[in-house]
């Protein structure tokens, strides 16, 4: 194995300089850091150290020593304290992995097949250990500079990405990572720009006092939460999602809609994507009444994905606009399972007035509100109208 490792060792300094140049060229955050001579010098020293230890230990099939991992963690911590983002932290690990493999192949000669395979086998566990140490240090550095709400937001992003290091951050926050969740997306109505990230972190901090769970407010009009649940008992988690939506509506003073979907660890991102689709077709209300699931809005989801169906429902919606108050009447009617007396009471009108309005619906649309066909068409049309 001498040929590969001998040439690889000779090229350590050149490879280190090439690595630092690559970080500057490919990563904007590292470009800004390396613009400072002292920081660039530190980066170069660390790149030399890392490559020297990699060559020496790979040749002996030995793992990184504790002192090595501590130094890697210290560098990660330094980067975290300087505000290196999660995206940049992941990118630098990817670039380093790519460069390491390139360095091995460049040093390998025709007679180094066995040595190359040996090195690749060593790199997998050793590389994961090194990346884990660096990431743990980065998380610690982030914790020293980020407010609690920002740390929870970071945790949520890491969980959605299936990042194994999320457990370290969760542990430091005393927030267990569940195997099963009800992913909840609260959609905040309104077309204005909405609060900036600093304001959203402040709002999220207030929400966390009541709802201590992985929670993020990534966009002005969207709150994402991962509510712990059990596979056979999701209803309590759905109810917590409704309580969260009501608090968001109260906090922002805007109507909201909540969409939910069950999810398992390493697939939380898929659950959030589905919950987001549900929230986009669910009715927005000043005080949310329900945290919706796919079961609740499957017809609306189907209509949203078929342009022709959506256009047809718009025609029905336009007919209901002739009123008076037909959308609100049908909404209450279906909310109360088509019970005349309960619906009239909820609307504060006489049952005969309700009957008149339902007759008006039939005259305008040709559909009986209480018929099977009427329920299917009119309830979907009303939900689309209220979804905004």
UniProtKB/TrEMBL annotation:
Domain PucR C-terminal helix-turn-helix: 326-381
Species in which this protein is naturally found: Micromonospora vinacea
InterPro entries, A to Z: CdaR-like_regulators (IPR051448), PucR_C-HTH_dom (IPR025736), PucR_C-HTH_sf (IPR042070)
Protein name (record): PucR C-terminal helix-turn-helix domain-containing protein
